[in-house]
Write a structure and sequence with these properties.
- It is a single chain.
- The mean pLDDT is 78.
- Helices cover 53% and strands 0% of the residues.
- The longest helix is centred in the middle third of the chain and has 21 residues.
- One of its GO terms (molecular function) is proton transmembrane transporter activity.
- InterPro entries: ATP8_metazoa.
- F-type ATPases have 2 components, CF(1) - the catalytic core - and CF(0) - the membrane proton channel.
């Protein structure tokens, strides 16, 4: 007996591509930008390395 094939390779491919797209869209649109006031209050301290 030959090996069992999935229902259709194209269907399987479309399923995984759609899951990838849905996952990517969810990650992209779930990002909440910080307000400008919070951004200004965060200061990045730069370190000057002296060798």
């Amino acid at each position: 007996m030959p090996q069992m094939m999935p229902l259709s390779w194209l269907t399987l491919f479309m399923f995984f591509v759609s899951m990838l797209l849905i996952f990517s869209f969810m990650n992209y649109f779930s990002f909440i930008p910080m307000p400008e006031s919070i951004k200004k209050s965060l200061k990045i301290k730069s370190l000057n390395w002296k060798w």
